[in-house]
Amino acid sequence: MTEKALRLGTRRSMLAMAQSGQVADAVRQLTGRPVELVEITTYGDTSREHLAQIGGTGVFVTALRDALLNGEVDFAVHSLKDLPTAQPDDLVLAAVPVREDPRDVLVARDGLTLTELAAASEGRPVRIGTGSPRRMSQLNAYARSHGLAVETVPIRGNIDTRIGFAHSGELDAVVLAAAGLNRIGRIGEVTDFLPVDTMLPAPGQGALAIECRAVTNGQNTALAAALAELDDPYTRVAVTAERSLLAALEAGCSAPVGAYADLLADGQVVHEMRLRGVVGTTDGSTLVQLSITGPVPTSHDEAVALGRELAVEMLAKGAAGLMGERAL
Questions:
Q1: Catalytic residue among 25, 45, 74, 82
Q2: Residues with Cβ < 8 Å from 114, sequence gap 6 or more?
Q3: In this structure, are strands 6-11 and 35-40 parallel, antiparallel, or unpaired?
């Protein structure tokens, strides 16, 4: 008799379906069981308001978590950067697979880079679309420091819609995540990769979160153990440090906060992890950008402590006053 299919909860967007499909293939190989995708519409998918207006925190996640808790699905796949930093007691983050490229990228008209766009704009501001206060803040700060005339324009929509703004000429360019374009096979449309030194990504950007119900009374043990096989220990401690910084700043997913943890190595020997963080006003006029370096965390608690330590330093430098309404 064929085993009952595992039900994977996913958002309906093209990107969500693509990344959930990749996880489904991996789970099929691990368990030998069929996996079916269960499409779920979230509030963030139906609202036409900008993310900063609807709060950002949890808007793409709550419906999936409700489906998990109600037993409608067995596990769910999220973009990690969409997850609220507080983990519910009755759900477990079973796996954080190897991270994709965390960088932000530009898709611009005529195949131009950011610098080429500015040179070709004939004195008018370059109009760049993004729905992210974090991207607006750092893009405007970069433009200010390099003498570029840039106007950031709030946009919503799926990847096709956003890229369409640039291809139609309505905007000069849009900023997107490299990971998403990689996962749907459209990385070739990128005209400029923005280095993390120019734009720190969102905490957890490029990583996926695989979530299931917590193990209780022996239930879900086999599924949680199978999903754990997909976990990448380095990715997990890196994103844990990034999200700990976000939590300690009491900032939500839509706050203008960037964070990125990477390994520092001497030759082949990895010896330290560096965590960088930035908070800024959306016009880019003021940024608090700091970093901290320590031993590579070997536990969840060590990664959390690294994030909290950097948050304390950033708050002492005035970060709290740059985030607008904080998530309490």
A1: 82
A2: 106, 108, 126, 148, 173, 192, 194
A3: parallel
Q: Which pLDDT value is given to residue 36?
A: 96
Q: Among 17, 31, 20, 33, which residue's Cα sits nearest to residue 75? A: 20
Report how far Cα 30 is from the mean position of its chain's Cα atoms.
Answer: 26
Instruction: Give CA–CA dist 243/253, Å, rounded.
Output: 10
CB 92 within 8 A of CB 211: yes
Q: Tell me the pTM.
A: 0.88
Q: What is the DSSP string of 139-193?
A: HHHHHHHHT--EEEE---S-HHHHHHHHHTTSSSEEEEEHHHHHHTT-GGG-SEE
Report the candidate in 274, 149, 125, 119 with the shortest Cα–Cα distance to residue 200.
274
Distances (CA, A) of 9 to 38, 41, 65, 180: 5, 10, 9, 18
Is residue 232 flagged as an active site residue?
A: no
Q: Give the H/E segment covering residue 91.
A: strand 91-95
DSSP assignment letter at 216: B
Stretches in the chain below the pLDDT threshold 70: 1-2, 42-59, 217-219, 252-254, 324-328
Alpha carbon dihedral 50, 51, 54, 56, in 10-degree steps, equals 180
In 3D, which of 290, 292, 283, 294 has the Cα closest to residue 315? Answer: 290
